[in-house]
Design a protein that fits this description.
The structure holds 2 protein chains of 2 kinds. By secondary structure, chain A is α+β, with helices and mostly antiparallel strands. Chain A is built from 29 helices and 17 strands. Chain A has 3 domains: 240 residues, Aldehyde Ferredoxin Oxidoreductase,  A, domain 1, CATH 3.60.9; 207 residues, Orthogonal Bundle (Aldehyde Ferredoxin Oxidoreductase Protein, subunit A, domain 2); 224 residues, Orthogonal Bundle (Aldehyde Ferredoxin Oxidoreductase Protein, subunit A, domain 3). In chain A, strand 2 and strand 3 form a beta hairpin. Chain A is globular and about 80 Å long. Chain B is built from 4 helices and 6 strands; from the N terminus they run βαββαββααβ. Chain B has a domain of 89 residues: Alpha-Beta Plaits (2-Layer Sandwich). Classes of the chains: A alpha+beta, B alpha+beta. The interface between A and B is medium-sized, with 27 and 19 residues.
């Protein structure tokens, strides 16, 4: 029985009806694994335990790998994101949950994406993954759809899983996470033992929904939020009528992950703690600014997105550089999103008062903004007002949408408005010129309500391109050139026009246009370390494979290279940060007892990387054409863009293209440069596919999957089918 | 508050203080389990460095679970019950006076109990009011 909209947490809990209950035996984590995963089906309220085999651990490792394995077994080649058999899988990986090494509490989330139709994976902080593991489960696999909003509650203290009808709780995350933390904790000191996964109102009205993972901040005394942003998994979550997932485990200790050799892990962790203590203030200032230290650097090196990626810098960028955020963030509080992360980049603006929307005038704590939100929801929209950026950040988070997709999709809509491709009829009267912060916020509130132009933006760039062409007769080629998406996923916040390798870093990816596989702008465009196609291909082999490994193990990428050992510059390959690679060898071996080398890291990752590529193929994607990228990410589309860097482009035309720009119109020069750069990108594809052991169509070869030990019968059949 | 004062120039590196400390707190004589540390200041220097907590409290703000606090007597203590064994405090101690040991899941530090000062034969360490 519902108690209405204004009830207490106790009354809300009373209104819960238990739909299914499952008792299980508590266990002890051994060498990073429980050797079982938890399966929950919301259509028939079934809860089961599944065994994890040795082969699954050897090949799929954990985290994203477990997600891929479970999802592969659960879906068909025809499965769409909103079919009941699609799943959401959350897994922390074998290292996830150790407290001795910074950045070791990540959860990896896998599903079929509403934006791309292919596989989405997302790496997120917060306490859910580690507490899930210590509660006895290496992964949580959710299938089916509930009839009405439910909560799945895992009580790792008593060994019980319940599916509970939850009619009264808030949907928006900053309130819901607080309500559920209070509801399931026994006391104030017990609150840090509870973690909540939730989305928000916009998650259910858009295709770019994200998931918030909570971690209770014992000093601020509130549930903080980290985001599994990319790919629209929050939309899948709300489509399944999940209001929240809650886990509780109350006895986290230094050995809860059951490591084989804790001393080896602690020694590696201590090195990084000391590096952060000694060098962070003169390196990245992650402890004071988080990733918000980046806008100034991006502006200086001309890769800060401005006005839908037209430009890489802007005179007003100084208003959003690191020092501005350092002053806004509350300092002196450990801001790690899991225990032991002394990088502590999860910064927050406290006592913030929104000026718009349903929470106008209230005092809230805003998690972030991080670099991606500052760039995608700020500079790329022509917004340089920190308060407006924090307000957008607050609402995208609590409404449960990905700030990268929201920002980039909004930037596209703004440019279409500026170019006259759409007008106020399309925007419902909103003035959508660059810089119109209030219009952006209104669109955001509309998205949460499922109304108006905000609902259109929430469909993402790919669908907006089609809609604007069909409904308003907009120039389809121009839309294709300026619509910043690849595979259906919106670009993150780096202008890649100056770096061919970074163009590949965005396009030659698994899940779409994001930078977490390879960030090569400095290596390629600034330091000129990878001049040839072969060099770039090597970088687009090594770095995506290396970074995939973080996702298999429950690790964060940032402590790898956002702090460096003092002697890193003197090593053979500073870009790889060899000292920290050795740390990862040590902590993997220290947890699992399985001795590995740094080469094994690449081998483990490559197997999962190629498996995910083949999973995309199985779903109808994963070939060469799906690695195409919009020309805006490769070069100047508009006259103003060309003219803003005319000397550089003229020089390239003369020296590299063999085209004399003298006396030519800007349009002619843009055309010549476009032909050349598009051809360069195709050559890059050839080189990268070859290095990865793939066919010219971008499909892993049979000999490659055999080498990687993923030549399962259905994988071989899939490859053979496409070879015909 | 009381802290352990030190005059390293008087130290003969007999390690009696370390053995007394580990005996008092861990019931074994193992200098790896001592909260006070006596080592050569620099290789070949012939000088001795004595490392011990001065109760500055910087570790309090580093701890992610607020397991470290200053007591009424101003001494900084770790709650073993709350500690999650991350060793952030060990890495961030400005005096390198927070310790860890392979057999201990939580770090340990000097609480100025003074047991070490009683066995020092030269007066190199002593309880001091600051």
């Amino acid at each position: 029985m519902s108690c209405g909209t204004k009830c207490t947490v106790q009354e809300m809990r009373k209104a819960h009806k238990v739909l299914a209950e499952y008792d299980y035996e508590l266990g002890k984590v051994e060498r990073g694994y429980n050797n079982r995963t938890l399966y929950v089906n919301l259509s028939d309220n079934r809860i089961e335990s599944k065994a994890v085999s040795q082969e699954m651990k050897d090949i799929f490792i954990g985290g994203r790998g477990f997600g891929l394995k479970l999802l592969w077994d659960a879906v068909k080649e025809t499965t769409k994101w909103n079919d009941p058999e699609n799943e959401i899988i959350i897994s922390p990986g074998p290292i996830g949950g150790i407290t001795q090494y910074p950045g070791a509490g990540k959860s990896l989330v896998v599903s079929i994406s509403p934006l791309t139709g292919a596989i989405a994976d997302s790496n997120v902080g917060g306490y859910f993954g580690p507490l899930l593991k210590f509660s006895g489960w290496d992964a949580l696999e959710i299938q089916g759809k509930a009839q009405a909003d439910v909560i799945v509650y895992i009580d790792g203290n008593s060994g019980k899983v319940t599916i509970e009808d939850a009619p009264d709780e808030e949907v928006n995350s900053h309130i819901l996470a607080e309500q559920l933390t209070e509801m399931y904790a026994d006391s104030e000191s017990d609150k840090r033992n509870v973690s909540v996964v939730s989305s928000g109102m916009a998650g259910q009205h858009s295709l770019m929904g994200m998931l918030n993972f909570s971690f209770y901040d014992v000093r601020r005394k509130l549930a903080r939020l980290k985001q599994a942003g990319r790919g629209g998994i929050g939309t899948v979550f709300r489509d399944k009528h999940i209001k929240a997932l809650v886990v509780k485990f109350s006895n986290v200790k230094g050995d809860s992950n059951g490591p084989a050799d804790i001393e080896r892990i602690a020694k590696a962790g201590l090195k990084v703690h000391k590096e952060l203590h000694d060098y962070d203030d003169v390196q990245c200032r992650m402890r004071k600014q988080g990733t918000a230290h980046l806008p100034g650097i991006a502006h200086d090196y001309d890769f800060l997105p401005v006005h839908n990626f037209r430009y890489g810098s802007h005179p007003e960028a100084r208003k959003v550089t690191g020092i501005v955020w350092e002053q806004l963030f509350t300092q002196g509080i450990p801001d790690g999103c899991w225990y032991g992360c002394t990088m502590g980049c999860a910064k927050a603006v406290d006592n913030f008062m929104p000026l718009t929307g349903p929470y106008k005038g209230e005092r809230v704590t805003v998690d972030g903004p991080e670099y991606e939100t500052i760039s995608c929801c700020g500079t790329n929209l022509g917004i340089f007002d920190p308060h407006a950026i924090v307000e957008i950040n607050f609402y995208v988070d609590t409404y449960g949408i990905d700030s990268i997709s929201f920002g980039t999709a909004t930037a596209f809509a703004m440019e279409c408005f500026e170019l006259g491709l759409i007008d106020k009829n399309a925007t419902g009267g909103l003035d959508f010129r660059f810089g119109s912060a209030l219009s952006v916020l209104e669109a955001l509130h509309q998205m949460a309500r499922g109304e108006g132009f905000g609902r259109i933006i929430g469909q993402g760039v790919r669908r907006m391109k089609k809609h604007f062409a069909e409904a308003y007769g907009a120039d389809a080629q121009l839309l294709a050139d300026i619509g910043m998406e690849c595979k259906g996923l919106e670009y993150s916040g780096y202008v890649s026009k100056g770096s061919l390798a970074q163009q590949g870093g965005y396009g030659l990816t698994l899940k779409g246009a994001q930078h977490d596989e390879a960030w090569l702008i400095f290596m390629d465009a600034v330091n000129r370390q990878i001049p040839t196609f072969e060099d770039k291909a090597e970088a687009l082999y090594y770095f995506p494979m290396f970074r995939t490994w973080f996702g298999l193990n429950g690790l964060c990428k940032l402590p790898w290279n956002d702090v460096e050992p003092a002697d890193n510059a003197e090593t053979d390959e500073p870009a790889k940060v060899p000292g920290h690679v050795q740390n990862y060898v040590d902590i993997f071996s220290g947890v699992t007892g399985r001795e590995i080398s740094k080469e094994d890291i690449i081998r483990m990752s490559e197997a999962m990387y190629d498996f995910q590529r083949l999973f995309n193929l199985r779903l109808g994607y994963g070939t060469r054409v799906h690695d195409d990228i919009p020309y805006r990410s490769q070069g100047p589309v508009l006259d103003v863009e060309y003219l803003s860097r005319a000397d550089k482009y003229d020089k390239e035309l003369k020296e590299a293209v063999g085209f004399d720009p003298e006396g030519k119109t800007v349009a002619e020069k843009i055309h010549a440069l476009k032909s050349y750069r598009k051809d360069q990108y195709e050559k890059l594809k050839d080189a990268v596919y070859k290095r990865r052991g793939w066919t010219p169509d971008g499909i892993p070869k049979l000999e490659t999957v055999k080498r990687l030990r993923i030549d399962f019968p259905d994988v071989v059949a899939l490859i053979n089918k496409h070879a015909k | 508050m009381k802290i352990i004062g030190k005059k390293p120039e008087l130290c003969t590196a007999c390690h009696a203080c370390e053995n007394a400390c580990s005996q008092a707190w861990f019931k074994v004589q193992d200098i790896g389990l001592s909260c006070i540390e006596v080592r050569e200041a620099a290789a070949g220097s012939g000088k001795t460095a004595v490392t011990v907590c001065d109760q500055c409290g910087e570790c309090i703000d580093i701890c992610p679970v607020s397991a470290i606090s200053r007591q009424q007597n101003s001494i900084v203590r770790i709650s073993k019950k709350e500690c999650v064994g991350c060793y952030s405090c060990v890495g961030f101690c400005p005096a390198s006076a927070m310790h860890m040991h392979r057999n201990q899941l939580v770090p340990f530090k000097c609480v100025a109990c003074g047991v070490c000062t009683k066995v020092c034969p030269t007066g190199a360490i002593y309880l001091e009011e600051v």
